[in-house]
Design goal:
Distance between the termini of chain B: 31 Å
Strand content of chain B: 15-25%
Strand order of the largest sheet of chain A: 6-7-8-3-9-10
Helix content of chain A: 25-40%
Number of helices of chain B: 14
Structural class of chain A: alpha/beta
Shape of chain A: globular
Oligomer: heterodimer
Largest sheet of chain B: 12 strands, mixed
CATH superfamily of one domain in chain A: P-loop containing nucleotide triphosphate hydrolases
CATH class of one domain in chain A: Alpha Beta
CATH topology of one domain in chain A: Rossmann fold
Largest sheet of chain A: 6 strands, mixed
Number of domains of chain B: 2
Number of strands of chain B: 12
Shape of chain B: elongated
């Protein structure tokens, strides 16, 4: 795959990117971040708590905006986009997997997955079938009508992954995806990421666990808002 | 899964179909069904109160106005004009009842005169009790036999004055209920007597009520002939006429001429006011009162919706963050909360209108009234409910749109 990555176009390109919070005194959460992530890469961003890794993920996910430098997603300068366009980018180009799953407890598993289509004006006709296919991909087709409250932590995270995959995103952003899971379940989820990456999915994952990061093909480290390439 | 560099469609704004918006709003409402029911209940009460009060005001107003119309629209009172009375002693003739009853459309007629009894008091006992008041200053009226029908008097006990009493100038009296109470007389079977000054009168009847001339309730009524003989009554004070429904206009035009063909202008004929104007005035007063009551109830319901929607926004902060991450714009989030609150108001309106209508029907059935409800009220209630929900949900929706996605996600689901 390495040869492919060399040739693949960049999905994300951050150049001298900075994020300053106007608190008193101002805090530079990210300082001159330069990184290029190509299609099909699995990148783990590691760093201690408060290092700026979540801020970086929020900016890459268009949930927050940078205050200096440049961020290009698929060649498009994100800072030039309106709030509505960034919302469009999120729903069509980016899938999110959160540490706390963020599933709606009163909706069934398949309804949670179908939620991903709501803001894309996706047709109703095959929505359920595509959600079922996404659940099949994560091995949870048999839990489609369950409420999330009846699932284990690992199963909930797999539902969240299925929801993220529903719209065939360009990029999967994972914020501490194994933070709430035991080691056996962690391995299952990481195996799933490995499968998706093998199929060409670009994954950016932040974690503070070194052994989790080891599963990714590329490591970068962040400390006090400064990014360093590990390997 | 690999794709070429994204084209400009990738940055097209996110969108939401009306069906998705509706589905998400309804799902949001039913996520906490118990709370939704309680919230809707507030609007139901408010709008039920509004519809019921509107309906009952119309029904009761119709009833009141109906009674008023029936009573007022059939009454004519004739009296001598003050200037005429001073120059002409017998402005009203003694045979006024006979003259008027010959007119077409007259149902009942009677003379009524208030007597000037000077300082004479009315007492039920010849003995004077120093501890209690036994003699009272009461109105003493003289009535022709037909007056009791003309004022629609009901008798509690005994008998009315008849023409024989008047012809013979009998010393008999009928007491109004208030006068009887003050005098302590409750029955006539033991032939109670009263004194007017030093003159003894036999009480032959006690009234229960009158529909007209309410002064009679506190009066001692004696025969007209008796008044003429003992009190030198010069002429009748008033002629009270009850007409058939719809005949007042005709009778009031003819009555002065029938009574005083020589000088009809010496009489003052008072006929009922225009019934429609009276009806409108009464109904407007009632409607305003009940609308204020209904409005206050609705305001309470609106505050309930606003409160619950605001709590819902706070509780669902994590969900808002998730939706923003999935591509919802600020507008999509606001629309969903607005639709949820509007739906609650609308559903509350439908249920409230139904309940209000039911209340009107049940109360009317119980009172044996004819239920009257503006047909627009049940249909407008859901619209008003929806608008109430819309207005109530505006502030919480704005709060929801202002949440930054990162902060919202941090709060969890």
């Amino acid at each position: 795959m390495d040869d492919d990555i060399e040739l693949a176009p960049p999905v994300i390109r951050l150049s001298a990117l900075g994020r300053r919070f106007d608190s008193e005194p101002p805090v530079d959460a990210l300082v001159d971040v330069d990184i290029e992530i190509r299609e099909g890469e699995w990148v783990a961003i590691v760093g201690p708590s408060g290092s700026g890794k979540s801020t970086l993920l929020n900016i890459v996910g268009c949930l927050d905006t940078h205050t200096s430098g440049s961020y290009r997603f698929d060649g498009i300068e994100v800072s030039e986009l309106t709030d509505k366009q960034r919302a469009g980018l999120r729903c069509r180009g980016i899938g999110f997997v959160f540490q706390s799953f963020h599933l709606l407890g009163q909706r069934s598993v398949i309804e949670n997955v179908m939620l991903s289509d709501v803001y894309r004006r996706a047709p109703f006709r095959d929505r359920r079938a595509r959600a079922a296919a996404a659940l099949e991909k994560v091995g949870l087709a048999h839990r489609a009508e369950f409420l999330p409250t009846r699932l284990s932590g690992g199963e909930r995270q797999r539902v969240a992954i299925a929801r993220a995959l529903m719209g065939s995103p360009r990029l999967l952003l994972c914020d501490e995806p194994t933070g709430n899971l035991d080691s056996a379940t962690t391995a299952t989820v990481l195996d799933l990421f490995a499968d998706l990456n093998d199929q060409g999915m670009t994954i950016v994952m932040i974690t503070h666990e070194r052994d989790v990061a080891e599963r990714a093909g590329r490591h970068v480290s962040i400390t006090d808002g400064v990014l360093t390439e590990v390997h | 899964m690999r794709r070429s560099r994204a084209d400009s469609a990738l940055v097209a704004p996110s969108g939401m179909t009306a069906r998705d918006l509706l589905n998400e709003s309804i799902a949001g409402l039913f996520a906490r069904p118990g709370r939704m029911v309680l919230t809707v209940f507030g609007t139901v009460i408010g709008l039920a109160a509004l519809v019921a009060t509107l309906g009952l005001s119309r029904t009761a107003g119709n009833r009141i106005v109906g009674r008023f119309d029936e009573l007022a629209a059939t009454e004519i009172v004739v009296s001598p004009k003050p200037s005429a009375a001073s120059t002409t002693i017998d402005a009203l003739p003694w045979d006024a009842p006979e003259r008027v009853s010959r007119l077409n459309g007259v149902a009942a007629v009677g003379n009524l005169s208030n007597l000037n009894v000077g300082s004479r008091l009315v007492a039920a006992s010849p003995l004077s009790d120093p501890q209690n008041q036994t003699a009272f200053k009461l109105t003493v009226s003289a009535a022709s036999p037909g007056l009791f029908r003309a004022v629609r008097a009901d008798l509690r006990t005994g008998a009315f004055i008849d023409s024989a009493h008047s012809i013979r100038a009998d010393r008999v009296a009928v007491l109004g209920p208030n006068a009887a109470e003050r005098l302590g007389i409750t029955r006539v079977d033991q032939l109670p007597a009263i004194t007017i000054g030093d003159d003894l009168y036999l009480v032959i009847g006690i009234l229960d009520g009158v529909a007209r001339q309410p002064d009679l309730l506190g009066a001692v009524i004696i025969p007209e002939g008796t008044a003429r003989r003992y009190y030198r009554l010069a002429h009748p004070g008033l002629v009270v006429v009850e007409t058939d429904i719809g005949a007042t206009s005709l009778v009031s035009r003819q009555i002065a001429l029938a009574l005083r063909p020589d000088n009809p202008r010496s009489l003052k004929v008072v006929s009922p006011p225009e019934p429609q104007r009276v009806r409108d005035a009464v109904q407007n007063d009632l409607n305003l009162l009940f609308l204020i009551l209904g409005g206050v109830s609705l305001l309470v319901g609106a505050i309930g919706i606003a409160n619950v929607t605001l709590v819902s926004v706070i509780e669902r902060t994590g969900e808002i963050g998730l939706r923003r991450a999935l591509g919802a714009s600020r507008r999509h989030v606001g629309q969903q909360f607005l639709l949820e609150s509007t739906t609650m108001g609308f559903v509350g309106g439908i249920l409230g209108a139904s309940l209000g209508t039911l209340v009107v029907v049940v109360v009317s059935a119980h009172q044996q009234w004819t239920p009257v409800l503006d047909p627009a009220a049940p249909f407008l209630a859901p619209v008003i409910g929806g608008l109430t929900g819309l207005v109530s949900g505006t502030y919480p929706a704005i709060r929801a749109t202002r949440l930054a996605p990162v902060d919202a996600l941090r709060s969890g689901t």
